[in-house]
From TrEMBL:
Bound cofactor: record note: Binds 1 Mg(2+) ion per subunit. Binds 1 thiamine pyrophosphate per subunit.
Protein name from the UniProt record: Acetolactate synthase
Protein encoded by which gene: ilvB
Pathways involved: Amino-acid biosynthesis; L-valine biosynthesis; L-valine from pyruvate: step 1/4; Amino-acid biosynthesis; L-isoleucine biosynthesis; L-isoleucine from 2-oxobutanoate: step 1/4
UniProt EC number: 2.2.1.6
Amino acid sequence: MVASNFSPVKLSPDAASVKKTGAFALMDSLHRHGVEHIFGYPGGAILPIYDELYRFEARGELKHILVRHEQGASHAADGYARATGKVGVCFGTSGPGATNLVTGIATAHMDSIPMVIITGQVPRAAIGSDAFQETDIFGITLPIVKHSYVARHARDIAWIIAEAFHIASTGRPGPVLVDIPKDVGLEECDYVPVNPGDVKLASYRPTVKGNPRQINAAIELMSTAKKPLLYVGGGAILANAHEEVKTLAHRFQIPVTTTLMGLGAFDEHDPLSVSMLGMHGTAYANFAVTGCDLLIAVGARFDDRVTGKLDEFASRAKVIHIDIDPAEVGKNRRPDVPIVGDVRQVLTQILDRLDELNLPEETITQDWLAEIERWKRDYPLEVPQPEGALSPQEVIVEVGRQAPNAYYTTDVGQHQMWAAQFLQTGPRRWISSAGLGTMGYGLPAAMGAKVALPDEEVICISGDASFQMNLQELATLAQYNIKAKIVIINNGWQGMVRQWQETFYGERYSSSNMSTGMPNFELLAQAFGVKGMVVRSRDELQGAIAHMLNHDGPVLMDVQVKSNENCYPMVAPGKCNAEMLGLPKEPPNFG
């Protein structure tokens, strides 16, 4: 749903208009929609907006966080949104400022994160003339936004912002771009405020309640299944459906696996949890999905990193697929019972219907649960303790032990997968780029989460290669005293690239060794005004983590680990989920 021009302005019948600029209309509208923090970087085309922002900041109505690169702004707004469930907001100017936001917009789009992105644009008369710092950011971002606007008139801005927030946060969330030409920001208009709730988009009314016939069909499959499995994705987090997932799992004694995006939707300490499935999921989760006879997909999209060889994924199972986005239902795997709707509401409908039918509490055989328990015993996740070196796994386990309730962000690579395997977090406390796999995401995302939740512990787990993608945001941490903690799992490599080159490319390590030219991260942090630390041995680890957590300010801790540790289990490309590398023994035979 994309529009290059806005419809005629709609006036509230009881609203009084006053002469204001487009920039004022924007800032006032953001304030009215509950925005407290904006992440951004100024430039020529967006200066009228920053000039008005100056006044709003002076009155204490908004707070702007000046990043050091626009990509940092988009990732920070993304982390802010994931941690809170609110719409994240970021600013960038025209041309390179706008294009620097693109990776962050694509990251949010892939993971369904609600954001409103404001870009400055050259004046209306100059659009299309290849003016200085002109890019068609509207066209560039068409495939990676939920909706787009170009504000052609100042009078339209209040309604544009109201619609942008509604669209970004309703149904399947996503990023919305608003491009504002410089002269529109300066233009005066009869400004009429538009408040949240004023917008009623007839063309955008997502289905939120499941079809009753499909609800009954789902219950019928659930009541006869002997080996059911709940497969829970990021949609359950976005819909705040964790309590409903828990209730359904316990009602039927259904084991639960989650995707990378779904981590935190179900308590991994619960005996019914089999943790994450997929390429680097647990062996027992992958065995469970291979052996189940009913797969209940809740807010998940059957991503290739989850399914492995698609035609062998849950090939013995009937499938119930619950999702707010009808485009996802049946896209990769045809379900036996498709249910389009908000997953929280649909699960509530299922639970209410179960109460009406008064079905038995437990219908599955205990053999299924016993089989899963055997797999957990026989194929545990391992935490190696190599002689003379730290393993990445033991570092992450110790961080998680000392900060069990922290909000965790990650970058992308081996450290991300180890963090997913060993950190057991709650809803919204796992913040990671899943669909796009964006290196450089972790630090600015932690910055956004910490700005949103200053009283919570926020820890970024990064790798030495990923961290260098956006390390300039250390300056932002220092300027605003954003007390996030960064732990670099430093193995001197692009770790996941090295593992693939070792496993699939004959140990030809082409351009993956990062040790030459590696900065001294401790001194680098100090140069930015951030506390730097380095850990080289197991004896130092526990005390160093405690010191990091107790420090009243941002910290960068460089933990030097074994250089050639591989992340297992691993489902090789094109293989069935039950065929994993790195298992301690032969996998079970599923026939």
